Amino acid sequence: MPGELADTWSAITAQLHRAVDDSAYGIWLEPLVPVALDGDQLTVAAPDETRGWVADRFARVLQTSAAAVLGPEVNIEIVSRSHVQRGRDGAQQGLPSQLRPPSGLNPKYTFDQFVIGDSNRLAHAAALAVAETPGQAYNPLFIHGPPGLGKTHLLHSIGAYVAAHGGGLSVRYTTVEAFTNHFVNAVRSGAMEPFKAAYRGSDVLLIDDVQFLGSKAKTEEELFHTFNELYELGSQLVLAADRLPRDIASVQERLTERFEAGLVADVRPPDFAVRLTILRKRVRVDGIELADGAALEVIADRVTDNVRSLEGTLIRLVALHSLTGRPIDAALASEVLDRLGGATQGGWGGGHRSVRDIQEAVCALFGLTHDELVSPSKTARLAWPRQIGMYLSRELTDQSLPTIGRHFGGRNHATVLHAWKRTTARMSTDRDAYDAVTRLLGDLARPAGDRDR
Predict the structure, then answer these.
(1) How far is the C-alpha of 344 from the C-alpha of 270, rounded, in Å?
(2) In 367-403, which positions are buried (b, 16+ CB within 10 angstroms) versus exposed (e)?
(3) SS3 label, residue 274
(4) Would you call 422 helix, strand, or coil by DSSP?
(5) Cα gap 76→86, rounded to integer Å
(6) Arch. (CATH architecture) of 3-99
(7) Following DSSP, what letter does each residue of 258-326 receive, concatenated?
(8) Nearest-angstrom CA–CA distance, 429 and 163
(9) Given 3.40.1440.10, 3.40.50.920, 3.40.50.300, 3.40.1280.10, which CATH number is that of 111-266?
(10) What's the 3-state SS for 339-383?
(11) Is the dihedral of CA 14, 9, 199, 238 positive or negative?
C-alpha cells in the first residue's frame, strides 16, 4: 500500500472510531480497505456480502470522516472486493497482501514465536495440523487451560499460517464477547443477514474466551447455528477457553457436545526450561542487552504461573535498568522480584486479583474515590492513576480488554491498550511511575488482610 494512501486511511479510520461505537466499527467498517486515492476520489473495498449494507448505512459517516482528513470536496466510492480483484481485462488478480482486510489477528503471534514444551506439545501439534489442513485434521479443535499460557497465541498462529499459506482461505478471529456485541448490535439495527454472512462465510473461524458464553442464551443460540453451518460446509472451527467444555456453566449440552466432538487439547503451566526459553526469545526479539544471563534464570525460577507474568517481570526489569543505569543481572532481577512482595511459586502470589481489587488499591495510593477513577474526566490527577489501573487489570486478571474498559467508566478496548502501552513506556523513564506500579504490585500480591493494615 503506498505510504500516502496508508497514512490517509489511518487518519480516516481514527475519525471513524470516534463516530461509531466499537461494535459497529468492528463488524462493518474494520474490514474496509483503501484501494486508490485519485485527486478527490477515494475508493474503498468492502467484502462482497456486506458492501450493500455498508453503502446504505455508513456512506454518510464515511464521507464525513474522509472530509475531515481530505477536505469537503472528497468523494468516496465503495466497491466490492471481487470488483477490485478482477482486472480491467477480466483476469482474476489477487489483492496485494497489504490490502487484504484485517481479520483481527495479531501479527506478533505466530508459530515461530511459540515456545514448545511438554506442557503444550499436544495443543501446538494439533494447532499446526489444523493450520496446514483446515477442516480435515481436527474439527473442531478445542484448546483449554488457565489464563496466560498461550491459547490466544495458538489461535492467532493458526490464523496467520492460513492467511499466508491457505491459498486465499478466509480467516476470522473473534472472542465470545466481541461476537456477542456484534450480535446484539445486528439485532438492534436489523442487520442480521450481513452479520451471519460475516461469520458463516469464514473458512476458518477462531473463537476465544468461550468460558464467557455461559448465561448468554441468545448468543449461544446464534453460535450454535453458526457452528453447525460452518461444520456442515467443512470449514474449520477452533475454540479456546480457560476450562473444559463440560465445565462451562449454563451452556446447553448440545453445544458442549459439539465442542467436544473433535479434539480437546490442554495447555498447562510451563516448566523451568520452557520459561527460560520464553524469556530468552523475548530478549532476542526485543534486542535487550543482558549483563548476566542468570537474570533470566532468576525470573524463570521464581515466576512460575504463566507467560504473562514472565513477560511482565521482564518489562519491569528493563524499566528499572533504564531508570538507574544498573546492568541487567541476577541481582537486579532479584531486586525487582523482591519489590513485588516476594513473588515466588505462583507468580505474583496471593492469587489473581479482580478489577475492583485493583481499583481500590489505586484509589488508596492516589487518594481518589472510585467515582473519580472511573469518571469521564481526563485531568492529569485522574488520567494517570486510571491508566495504571487499566495496566494492572490487564496484567493481573484474565478479563478481556473490553471488559476492563467497562469497569473503567465504559471505555473501549483501544483505550485500555493505550493505557497499558503508556504505563509500560512511562515506567522506563519516570522513577515515580515505576515505584507506583511496583508498590501496587507488591500490595496486590499480599493477602487482603495484610493490605488493609
Answers:
(1) 15
(2) ebeeebbbeeeeeeebebbbbbbbbbbbbbbebbbbb
(3) helix
(4) helix
(5) 20
(6) 2-Layer Sandwich (3.30)
(7) HHTSSEEEE-----HHHHHHHHHHHHHHHTPPPS-THHHHHHHHH--S-HHHHHHHHHHHHHHHHHH--
(8) 38
(9) 3.40.50.300
(10) HCCCCCCCCCCCCCCCHHHHHHHHHHHHCCCHHHHCCCCCCHHHH
(11) negative
Mean pLDDT by 10 residues, the chain (453 residues): 69 84 78 83 84 84 86 84 57 41 70 90 95 92 91 94 88 88 84 86 91 83 91 93 88 88 92 91 83 90 83 85 87 84 44 81 93 90 93 82 87 83 84 87 66 45
33-38 vs 41-46, strand pairing mode: antiparallel
Helix (H, G, I), strand (E, B) or coil at 298: helix
CATH number belonging to the domain at 272-339, selected among 3.40.50, 3.30.300, 1.10.8, 3.30.70:
1.10.8
Please tell me the distance from the alpha carbon of residue 338 to that of residue 273, in angstroms, as a whole number. Answer: 22
Q: Map grid coordinates 496486590 to a residue.
A: 444
Query: Residue 205 forms beta bridges with which residues?
Result: 172, 237
**Residue located via cell numbers 490464523:** 159
| CA dist., res. 241 & res. 228, Å (int) | 19
User: Would you call 106 exposed, middle or buried from its count of C-beta atoms within 10 A (0-12, 13-18, 19+)?
Assistant: middle
SS3 at position 265: strand
pLDDT of residue 92: 37
Residue the block writes with cell 487439547: 265
Query: CB count, 10 Å around CB of 35?
Result: 21
DSSP 327: -
Four-way CATH pick for 355-451: 1.10.1750.10, 2.60.220.30, 3.40.50.2300, 1.10.3720.10: 1.10.1750.10
